Amino acid sequence: MSTPSPASGGTTPIEFRSGFACLVGRPNAGKSTLTNALVGTKVAITSGRPQTTRHAIRGIVHRADAQLVLVDTPGLHRPRTLLGQRLNDVVRATLSEVDVVGFCMPADEPVGRGDRFIAEELSRLPKRTPVVAILTKTDKVGDADRIGARLLDVAGLGEFSDIVPVSAIRSYQVDVLAELLAARLPKGPALYPGGELTDEPEQVMVAELVREAALEGVRDELPHSLAVVVEEMIPREGRSPQNPLLDVRVNVFVERPSQKAIVIGAGGSRLKAVGTRARGQIEALLGTPVFLDLHVKVAKDWQRDPRQLRRLGF
Description:
This protein is 32% helix and 21% strand. It is of the alpha/beta class.
């Protein structure tokens, strides 16, 4: 995507801007859903479970006047495991590199310790890094007075460049938020080609789609214990270009044998459902038929084991 050229007839040219915006917030604040709404397509997995996002995911918003690269991060929280510490490290490293920060807080929950913890972290950022406070999930609050009260609570957390209520589900003020974030980017040319919506490697996206499918309907303790690794993605030999098939072999890791039983389900029923759901998403992502080979393995206490965390990509 090239920088727009000056308009004909002597009018003032568009001052094109480009840069990075980081969305932060406590776990399950709606960051990934908002990222997908801003980009206009799915680049980050979503779940009702906290700590779904495990690494910084980039989604690219193309505008006539700007290219906004959104970085969706794991929820910033007080960690209880080595994995939690490393997820926080991802967030803090990202905050140090972006041009603007969007601080997400859900409208359907009161300001809590987690929000104050993040506000304190953001107060340490250089003054040159603007912070936009975003009240997410306004569709879950029908009363305008309650939303107004929540906005006042948010305003009391710190000094923000702007405070904006949004609903990613209903597309309420998503365009307004994009404009506010883009206006705070530095002037410069586009960073990615037009039409590119994420720079995530395909294997990472595939692993995330499998993990999202596996998170559906599981018990509360399981999401944090799930890790997914794509072992290989190779075209099936002997297939014609008109009838391709991609073999995708994936390992799903849990921490205990009892969790393995939950993921597999009675007679393999849950794992089959996970495979069916994930395969459809993967085929839509890659644009080709897929044979998805899923295996569930136990990696004992991997969230607390530095060696296993490295092996699983953390």
